[in-house]
Amino acid sequence: MLLFKAELIRRYGPWKNMDDVELATLEYLGWFNHRRLHTACGNIPPADYEAIHYRHQQAALTAAETK
Predict the structure, then answer these.
(1) Same domain flag for 1 and 32
(2) Distance between CA atoms of 39 and 46, rounded to whole angstroms?
(3) Where is the Integrase catalytic domain (predicted)?
(4) Cβ atoms 37, 44 nearer than 8 A
(5) Beta partners for residue 38, in sequence order
(6) Are residues 29 and 41 in the same domain?
(7) 65 pLDDT above the threshold of 90
(8) 56 lies in which domain range?
(9) What is the Cα–Cα distance from 10 to 21, expressed in whole angstroms?
């Protein structure tokens, strides 16, 4: 929450109305989850890291079922 306030709300305010805040929030979340490179995730976006994680889990379950 503090990161969101510091990076978006305070930096680009004051806002004209709530519609502007909502649109900016959606754009920020899109960047934060799908385009931001995260060093703890191997310099890939968090959404990509999560997708890889679940693919590996599914592959392990499938391999376990075929034994």
Answers:
(1) yes
(2) 10
(3) 3-50
(4) yes
(5) 44
(6) no
(7) no
(8) 37-67
(9) 11
Q: What is the pTM of this model?
A: 0.73
Does 1 lie in the same domain as 29?
yes
Mean per-residue pLDDT, 1-28: 91
Q: What is the DSSP secondary structure assignment for residue 41, as one 8-state letter?
A: G
Is residue 44 within 8 A of residue 38, CB to CB? The reply is: yes
SS3 content of the chain, % helix, strand, coil (to 5): 75, 5, 20
Strand, helix or coil for residue 44: strand
Query: Long-range pairs for 25-28 at CB < 8 Å and ≥24 separation?
Result: 28/4
Place of tokens 């004051």: 14
Peptide bond just before 45 cis, omega within 30 deg: no
The token duo for 64 is 């376990």
